[in-house]
TrEMBL record:
Native organism: Derxia gummosa DSM 723
The UniProt record lists the keyword Metal-binding: yes
InterPro entries recorded: HAD-like_SerB, HAD-like_sf, HAD_hydro_SerB1, HAD_sf
A Pfam family recorded for this sequence: HAD
Keyword Membrane part of the UniProt annotation: no
Enzyme class of the recorded protein, top EC level: hydrolase
GO molecular-function terms, A-Z: hydrolase activity; metal ion binding
Name of the protein: HAD family hydrolase
EC number from the UniProt entry: 3.-.-.-
Keywords tagged on the record: Hydrolase, Magnesium, Metal-binding
Length: 249
């Protein structure tokens, strides 16, 4: 159990929650959403790489290596800082203006593959007047595409430093600040709330949607944890503790 002061009252929803807004009365609620394998069914970083490979901007072999590293990351055996260094090392030769233009093209393609169920879930929380935030270990550069796709006003993601080179600004691959990962998500969400004059006690209820056991600290911290197509370890925890389990495919 986390130390979040928000109450753990019964989490009431419509029988078909995906076709209508959540019902919580007049309570003030915080709604947090993981990205990869939660709101979307794939790894966003790998998907962007495949887009760049198709345009012959990145070597195709790196996609497989990156995917292997992601599997190790999910298992907790790869450092997120090193993963970001390796990822952006491929892209350093391109100025940020070019990368941004390609990312925006990719965003238009990716938006076509977001499930209607995931979109309805996010929209239902917005319609209920909840304070909604995308909370992901994915870098801000990549996650911002889905921030726009889903219509999030707020996002807490891994910050990557910019650097200057002969061709102008580029993405260095070095993480700035605290990793938005495991316990770091709690701290970073707290800092985001404080920047708005809020804290966890500002809310009667809080909900976090995630697929990953790595998100267990934040799932335990909120009043209403929801496992979305969870990995094996998280599924076991969710079943043991009676947490809701959803499939947004």
């Amino acid at each position: 159990m986390g130390s979040n002061p928000a109450s753990r009252t019964k989490f009431k929803v419509h029988s078909d929650y995906l076709n209508g807004p959540f019902v919580f009365g007049m309570k003030r609620r915080l709604a947090l959403f993981d990205l990869d394998h939660t709101l979307i069914s794939y790894d966003s970083g790998a998907d962007l790489l495949r887009f760049l490979v198709a345009r012959e901007l990145v070597d195709a072999g790196f996609v497989d290596r990156y995917t292997e590293h992601c599997i190790e990351y999910v298992a907790g055996r790869v450092d997120l800082r090193q993963l970001n260094r390796e990822y952006y090392a491929l892209l350093m030769r391109y100025p940020v203006e070019s990368l941004t233009a390609w990312r925006n093209e990719w965003r238009e393609e990716s938006g076509k593959h977001v499930s209607a169920a995931a979109m309805r879930l996010v929209h239902s929380h917005h319609a209920s007047g909840d304070l909604c935030c995308l909370v992901t270990a994915t870098s801000e550069f990549i996650a911002s595409a889905y921030r726009e796709i889903f219509g999030f006003e707020h996002m807490v993601a891994t910050r990557i430093a910019m650097a200057e080179g002969p061709q102008g600004s580029f993405i260095s691959g070095e993480v700035e600040g605290l990793l938005n990962y495991r316990e770091g998500k709690i701290a970073n969400v707290r800092d985001w709330l404080l920047a708005q004059g809020l804290d966890w006690s500002s809310f009667d209820e809080s909900v976090f949607y995630s697929d990953s056991f790595n998100d267990l600290p934040l799932l335990e911290y909120v009043s209403h944890p929801v496992a979305v197509t969870p990995d094996a370890r998280l599924r076991a925890v969710a079943i043991e503790r009676g947490w809701r389990i959803l499939d947004l495919a």
